[in-house]
Amino acid sequence: MTKYHIFGDESIAGNIIVYALVIAPVESIEQVEFALSKIKEEFGGSSSSRIHCKELLHKDARKYTDWAHLSNEKAWELVLSVKDNLANLGLLTRVGYVERSDLSPYIHGVGGIDEMNLTNEKQLIPFAFYTATAQVAMDAEYAGVCKLWIDPNKDMVNWFNARAQVGRLLHLNHLDLSRRSIDTVMTPENLVSKEKPLLLDLADILAYTSSKVLSGASKVTKYKSDRSAELVYKTMNPQVAKFRQANSEEAIEGLLEKFSINIKR
Fold first, then answer.
1. pTM, full prediction
2. Do residues 255 and 134 touch, judged by C-beta distance below 8 A?
3. Buried b vs exposed e over 171-204: b needs ≥16 C-beta within 10 Å?
4. CA–CA separation, 100 vs 244, rounded Å?
5. What is the rounded distance in angstroms from the CA atom of residue 214 to the CA atom of residue 55?
6. Which of 72, 89, 177, 185 has the fewest Cβ atoms within 10 angstroms?
7. Considering only the top CATH level, what class is 4-264?
8. Residue 192's Cα: distance from chain center in Å?
């Protein structure tokens, strides 16, 4: 029986690659969708208008969307309104992120697969995804009672000895070394259908603001948009985990047994 729906999206800002999850109890979804639709209509959109922060919050991209009539200030007001109105509706949040500068220029393959050279930041989206979803997969509360929905990403990347769509790489496996088997623990419901539930908008907001906050943590001068992003991030209050590379074969094997968050340097 499904008790939770999980909505995921990624965002990249500077050196930071983020994957964000919004976890919604089944009984809350209708209320959340209603509240989100009402906010969109209040700001001149329709219930079917989508929120993509990289479009909504940037003037040149916004003019090609349903939010073309909004100023930068009003666009941020929309996002802040979502934050205020959905804060007490039972949603939970998780974020996994990768800091590119922490990684070596390549990642070793496993089981005889050639190493992967890191030439494109989008190659790191799956690792941010693993880091986010592992937090859910290792929590007994969610075992076997979740459905995962992602914002499909069709971008092609080099993936070890092949080419692959980023979206096709977003599934979580469990490697059981004692049985020498791999079990798929979490895979998106919409990999084939490309269905985009409305609550993916919330994952977009969380991913965007998280990447902005995590990439700007050391900034001395902060703009109004930085402060607005911090407000949203703090209210959505994600549990955050950082992806790290392990330093030894023993470390990678131990972590792979526990829904690998780390990989070999």
1. 0.89
2. no
3. bbbbbeeeeeeeeebbebebbeeeeebbbbbbbb
4. 10
5. 20
6. 177
7. alpha beta
8. 19
List the chain pLDDT tens, one digit each, 265 residues: 999 999 999 999 999 999 999 999 999 999 999 999 999 999 999 999 999 999 999 999 999 999 999 999 999 999 999 999 999 999 999 999 999 999 988 887 766 677 888 989 999 999 999 999 999 988 999 988 999 999 989 999 998 888 999 988 898 765 444 444 445 568 899 988 889 999 999 999 999 999 999 998 767 677 899 999 999 999 999 999 999 876 544 444 444 444 344 332 2
Distance of alpha carbon 255 from alpha carbon 5, whole angstroms = 26
Choose among 168, 226, 225: nearest CA to 194: 168
Q: Provide the residue ranges of all domains of the chain, joining segments of one domain with +.
A: 4-264
Pairing of strands 239-242, 92-99: parallel
Q: What does the longest C-alpha to C-alpha distance in the chain come to?
A: 59
In 101-199, which ranges are continuous DSSP H helix?
125-137
Distance between CA atoms of 37 and 137, rounded to whole angstroms? 30
| 82 phi and psi angles, rounded to 5 deg | -60, -45
Contact 149, 190 (CB under 8 A): yes
What whole-number distance in Å separates Cα of residue 151 and Cα of residue 207? 11
> What are residue 116's DSSP bridge partners?
107
Report the alpha-carbon distance of residue 2 to residue 99 in Å, rounded: 34
How far apart (Å, rounded) are the C-alpha atoms in residues 18 and 155? 16
